[in-house]
Task: structure prediction
Amino acid sequence: FELTMSSDEISNNNITIYNTGQMDLEYLIDPYGYQSTNSDINQNYNWVDISSNYETVIFSHNDYASNDIINFNFEFPFYGNSYSSLIVNPNGWVGFGDDNTEWYNTGLPSVDAPLNAIMPFWDDLNPNNSGNSSNMSGDVKYQINNNNIIIWYDNVRHWVGSGDIDGTYDFQVVLWNSGNIDFNYRNMIGNINSATIGIQDASGTNALLIGVNNDFAHNELAVNIHPKPIWLNVSSLSNSIIPGESDNLNLEINTLNISAGNYNYTLEIESNDFHNPLIEIPINLIVNDLPCDGVSPGDLNYDGQFDVLDIILAVNVILYGSTDECDAILSDLNNDSEINVLDIVSIINLILD
Result:
């Protein structure tokens, strides 16, 4: 979908899903629509330096979240709810619910994983703690601002047990008041392929898994996680279509209170079609807040054609002026900031052409 719209406009667009197979076709669209991009693909690496102004998180144990709940100055939207406080766990995740002491990471979604949580690097980590675990190293620090909160795992070491896994990790998670989430990895030394990276909701049924037990989180990598944009509403979100039938999806694009600019989102439709289990539909939206957008200069009566009526209206603007901003813009065909006989000639030329 390629759309150009003015501010405060609504556009309804349809997608038809046909079942041309021989069994029921089931489709599902994530109502929250979280997606991610990263600096290996299409964004810049950006580290937020808070080394001169931060608070330190105090842990009593290397698997237990800090007893100190961090409160911040805005409402952070996450999976349909809003939060103004969070907990920090030493094992590379932050959350908005109960603590989870599990150090053995899993894939997502999972009810065994931290719930209602954001996991930049969920692994068996071992930062400095008052429990004095062996080989502990590094601190977790944070900074609160008006529009974001930064939690920095500053050279935190991996737990060194009987195995051969070891490493020191310098990374941060940034939560923005818009609902966007950044993971920034500055210096990941040693083993990096034993962590879970992603987010999941409070029930453990909706999640965005970015990586699990792989080497995704390398040095100088930035990841941005963003929810479905507020200007897009999709219905219905799921259905089962019998063979030979179809279903219509409605995509409502609403630019109310959306600033002028370019916006992009890829709608993902999952289904049980094993040939095409995931359909991606790019939506490119241009919001233009210019007056009279979409109307051709010279078409003063907005009927999509140039004729004598447009000449009459332009003459009236010359003789009597107009309080309508669009009249002045559409009448000034030569863009000289004056409306005169030269503009009338230009309209006549459009008619003759």
Notes: DSSP finds three helices and 21 strands in the chain. Residues 322 and 328 are 7 Å apart (CA to CA). The two ends are 32 Å apart (CA to CA). Helices lie at 308-320, 325-331, 341-352.
